[in-house]
Write a structure and sequence with these properties.
The protein is mostly helical and about 100 residues long. The protein is about 85% helix and about 0% strand. The protein is rod-shaped and about 70 Å long.
């Protein structure tokens, strides 16, 4: 590949990755705000949980599931954001090397 081709390809890659980075940061910000607003869901083991009505147990378990799902989603987005930042650095260095 010619240096001009690498520079052009790197520029496009960086633009795409920067847009993804911005979108991920926006989404993470919103998920973090949602997480902050969510009430803590505590389920006691043993008798207190067993003493709840079935509908209350279902509601508590659904709330726990939703919270864990959102935590996993945020974690995955943070990992992707870290990968995007590494890729941006890679393409910046390729661009600098070719230029």
């Amino acid at each position: 590949m010619l240096d001009d081709d690498i520079t052009a390809y790197a520029k496009v890659a960086i633009e795409i990755l920067e847009a993804e980075k911005k979108a991920l940061q926006t989404q993470l910000g919103e998920l973090d705000r949602m997480h902050t607003r969510q009430a803590d869901v505590q389920v006691c083991g043993g008798d207190p949980f067993a003493s709840l009505e079935p509908a209350q147990r279902v509601s508590a378990m659904e709330a726990l599931y939703e919270r864990e799902y959102q935590n996993a989603r945020r974690s995955g987005m943070r990992l992707r954001l870290a990968c995007v930042e590494v890729e941006i650095a890679h393409w910046c260095s390729r661009q600098d090397f070719a230029g």
